Amino acid sequence: MPSLKDLKNRIGSVKNTRKITKAMQMVAAAKLRRAQEAAEAARPYAERINAVLGGLAGSVGQSDNAPRLLTGTGQDRVHLLVVMTAERGLAGAFNSSIARLARLRAQELLGQGKVVKILTVGKKGREILKRDLGSHFIGHVDLSEVKRIGYANAHEIAQDVLRRFDAGEFDVATIFFNRFQSVISQIPTAKQIIPAQFEGEGTGSSSLYDYEPGEEAILADLLPRAVATQVFTALLENAASEQGARMSAMDNATRNAGEMIDRLTIVYNRSRQAAITKELIEIISGAEAL
Amino acid sequence: MAKTLQFDLVSPERRLTSVQATEVQIPAAEGYMTAMADHSPTITTLRPGILRVRSAEGTAEYAVTGGFAEITPEGTSVLAERALPLSEVTAEYMDSLIAEASAAAERAAPEARADADLLVQDFRALRTAAGV
Asked: Is the CB of residue A91 less than 8 Å from the CB of residue A54?
């Protein structure tokens, strides 16, 4: 049985914890709103570029001199997994769910005798994957200094990936990130970016347009930009998901702390009352004995 | 009153402008082109240059690089990787773009070298045109 003083200290420390988690929740809520706005603002560009490329890919994709970014290298032996996680923890299952998805994919690929290379974005994913798959790491992008994710960050990652592709370091590239569904639901997602895949491919709308210069030249110019755009979209989705996950995790933590305080307070009151009763009994029975 | 077209200028991070314009001058890959209402549907890539939008409110000018323009009879969308109102373009901004393009040209594969050099020239021309 803990003493009254112990209980009091315990209640105090849980109260402090609750203050911290409450503050973190509110900070995450504010950041989430900003992240969502950023993701919203970036949507028109991504949608348009995908629509145009989808049309182009449908008409040019079959020809022999289509760019390699679209058709691939003709092999799928070496896979590059770009694992995007947060720089910070305390966000519920946010980091571990991406890492789990990436680990499953990596193990599946290794089981098929493929070569796996991993590029990590964000420190948390790197820490989680290090033990099992550390030998497959080929690079790391540190975003801990970045306050607000901009297109320049995505551009850099994309340039790195494209450079490796041009150097023949891999055949297929997949990005792993959390797609933002709502505050309580973020879906770990794997998306293949090289060879490029477009939703709504082959709609045939491309034949309506004149292309200047030719279709292939445009495709060659736009595909690298599309890779950067997809990385950017993923980064933004991830940022929104991270804040969403942190917000609900901290909400839960705050609620749990509240419950714990209630329980501890009851125990504290009961033991205080027990002590008082005990003293009274001692006095009364002492008086009766006389 | 001339017919107008819906004009959108979009960068990866946000939509910069969306107006009813009478004409839009685009720095297209094969020279400047002007889009007006009922233009035939065209998709073209952009060179670094100045985008001029004429609308009821006057003429707006933007320095744009990288991306493409989608022209339909009803409207024109310009998707530029970097876009900035011309009045906000500074010498430092242009210098950083030129330095970046030059560095890319240095690294470029031999067969892509000519294109990369051309890009650097375009940036220099844009810098002169912007008058900074």
From this structure: no
Interface of A with B (CB under 8 A): 38, 41-42, 44-46, 48-49, 52, 150-151, 154-155, 166, 208-213, 217-218, 221-222, 225, 228-229, 232
CB contact under 8 A, B81 and A38: no
CATH code of the domain covering residue B35? 2.60.15.10
Q: What confidence tens digit (pLDDT) does each residue in A69-98 have?
A: 877 777 888 999 999 999 888 888 899 999
Residues 6+ apart with CB under 8 A from A81: A102, A105, A106, A116, A117, A118, A119, A173, A174, A176
Q: Do B43 and A225 touch (CB under 8 A)?
A: no
- Residue A164 scores a pLDDT above 60: yes
CB–CB of A118/A138 below 8 Å? yes
CB-closest option in B12, B66, B67 to A232: B12
Is the full-model pTM beyond 0.90?
no
Residues 6+ apart with CB under 8 A from A158: A224, A227, A228, A231
Burial of A284 (0-12, 13-18, 19+ CB in 10 A): exposed
ipTM of the complex: 0.81
**CB-defined contacts A:B, below 8 A:** 74
Q: Which of B7, B9, B10 to mutate: most A Cβ within 10 Å?
A: B10
Domain architecture of chain A: domains with CATH:
4-21+250-289 (1.10.287.80), 35-246 (3.40.1380.10)
Same domain, B59 and B99: no
Amino acid at site A191: K
Q: Identify which of B12, B29, B109 has the shortest CB distance to residue A151.
A: B12
Are B21 and B83 found together in one domain? yes
Spell out where chain A has E strands.
78-84, 115-121, 137-141, 172-182, 185-194, 210-212
Amino acid at A100: R
Mean pLDDT of A177-201: 84
Contacts of A113 (CB under 8 A, 6+ apart): none
User: Residue B80: its chain A contacts at CB < 8 A?
Assistant: none
Question: Is the CB of A42 less than 8 angstroms away from the CB of B68?
Answer: no
d(CA B66, CA B73): 23
* DSSP for residue B40: P
CB contact under 8 A, A221 and B68: yes
Q: Give A215 or A109, the one with higher predicted confidence.
A: A109
